[in-house]
Amino acid sequence: MKVLLLGATGNFGSRLLPALVAHGHEVVVYVRSEQKIKDLVDSKLLSRVTLVIGDATNTATICNALTTNKCTALVNSAGIASIFPWQAYSMQDIIEAVASAAVKASEELEYPIRCWFMGGVTVLDVDSKEKCHVELNADLDDSFPLFTEHNRTFKCLSAKPAKNLQWSMLCPSNMDPTDQSIHLLEAPQGNHLSASADVPPNWADAYSRGVPLIGPLLSVFANLARYGTKLEDCADFIAADLKNSDSAFVRHRVGIFDAGKGKVE
Description:
single chain
C-alpha cells in the first residue's frame, strides 16, 4: 500500500515509519518540520520515504497529500489525547481534519482510504463472564475519568461514510519503547500481540469485582495493569494489518494484549 503517515516525529509515529517500510509499504511522511524528522530519523530510512510538509489540522493540505501521491491508506499518530475531561480537547481538531481529508480524498480518487487512528484501552468495552458489555469509561466516569477524549475520536470516525473511510482505532494501554534509535529495519520484526475487535483480549473478571460499590472499578484497575505493550510491537501490528485486504478490524476499535508476557492466571 501507499501510506500517508502523520505524526512521524512522535514516540509512536517514529516507530511506525520503519515498520511500514519493512513491510513493503510506500510511505509518504506528512510532518510540520522537515528539520525535526531529519534530526530524529536515520538517513538511510529517510531516503526510502517521500516527505510532505504541512499542518495536521489543515484538511486541504492533507487531502492534497493523499490525492497527489495516490495514497490508498493513512495512519495518524499525530496529537496527544487529554487525560482529564476538564482539559482542552485539542486532539479533536487533528482527528476531524485528518478524517475529513481522507473522506474528501476518497471521493476524488474513487476508492476508499484504509485508515488507522490512535485511541486507548478506556474506550473499549468489557465482555464480562456475565455476558454484559460495560464501557470502561462508564466504570471510571463517576470517580476517576481518564482519556475520555478517545470517545470523541470514536464518535467522529463512526460518523464518517463507510464507503470512504475504512478506519480502525488501535486502543492500547501504556506503550514503552524497546529501542531509542529510529533506523531502517532489514525485515519486519514481528510482534506477540493478540487482538480483538471492540473488547480487550484476555480480559479477566477479578475476584474484587464482587466487592460492593467499588468492585467493578477495582476489577478494571486490576486488568489495566496487565495491558502494557511495546511501541515497536504496536507499530508492526498496524503495518502488517495494512497488508490484509480483508481486515476484520475495519470500522472497529481494536484491543491488544502482549501474549508474549504470559497467559492469564
